Amino acid sequence: MAVLRAQAIMKIIVVIGAGGNQGGSVARTFLNLPHWKVRAITRNPSSPAAKALEVLGAEVVQANLSDPDTLSQAFHGAHAIFLNTDFWATYRSFVATTTPKEKGPLDGEEFDPGKVAYQAEVSYGRNAAEAAATVPTLECLVYSALPAMTKSTGGKYKSHHADSKGAIADYIETELPDLAKKTSFIYLGAYNTNALLSPVLDPSDGKYKYFLPLSKAARMPIINQKESTGLFVKALIEDEAPGTKLLAYDTNSYLTYEQIRDIWSRASGKEADFVTVTVQFMHEKFKTPMELIQSVPALEEYGYTGSMKVIEPGDLKTAVRTKSWEEWMMERDWKAILEA
């Protein structure tokens, strides 16, 4: 299949979740390209984010991943689709509205918001993929995925939010072969605002410390999701062949935790220590949900993408230049951050 390149005719890219971090970045990137028309899909066309995109020239369309009929209409005439499914919206909603001991709809098991969010996200992803598979004009689908943690670690570690995205990717590749031939996958590194990239102030001695179930040698790819996602998606759609799996991170931003700590210290002007602890310690001391941290040790044991074959930014046919995490950190308002 020919790769999508700049052409005289206008092509349509449909961006699902255009009001979010990733989708917003993709929409803004393609709005700056004269040969693309952006159709921004959102559940709430009246939101400030949707209105801002409309002002920039996007066609804002209301659709919902839980309603296949709205997706079929939204995808009409699309040449490219960017798909990102949201695990955490469902997770947070159930945590906020359901008590821990309440029984959920999962065969009488004790309520687990991670399982509920997993089921919802997989359903949404399948709905979108099945709708995309029926679009005759479609040339490229890019799905924002994560490696399936249970599968990649042989069951040693589990992560509902990674497993759900991995399940959607598997569904496309195994159940929708014609769509799979048009699909690429982008695996974003940790968001630059991820809490695991910053230390906490230890009140016992007044020092900043990283408490993590990792050693300083563990490596983490980092990306500014609001700025860089669109640039990498553009590269996948316009320059790479379908079937590409890209681990996306910012320039010079695949770092060891020793480097992450040192950059944080240089940027903030504060020294930080690194303390290796257990997942259980983090859960008990900081009340961090297990869904967020139970699979963190896999980063060191298996790597960010495990045994999955991926390309990295340096392998792209057209170089994507982005601001490094260190540059971004140096530009932050550290007085306000440290006083918060």
Automatic annotation (TrEMBL):
It comes from Talaromyces stipitatus (strain ATCC 10500 / CBS 375.48 / QM 6759 / NRRL 1006) (Penicillium stipitatum). The lineage of its organism: Eukaryota, Fungi, Dikarya, Ascomycota, Pezizomycotina. It comes from the Eukaryota. The keyword NADP applies. This is NmrA-like domain-containing protein. Pfam families: NmrA (PF05368). GO terms for cellular component: nucleus. Transmembrane segments: none annotated. Keywords: NADP. InterPro entries: NAD(P)-bd_dom_sf, NmrA-like, NmrA-like_oxidored. Belongs to the NmrA-type oxidoreductase family. Residues 11-328 form the NmrA-like domain.
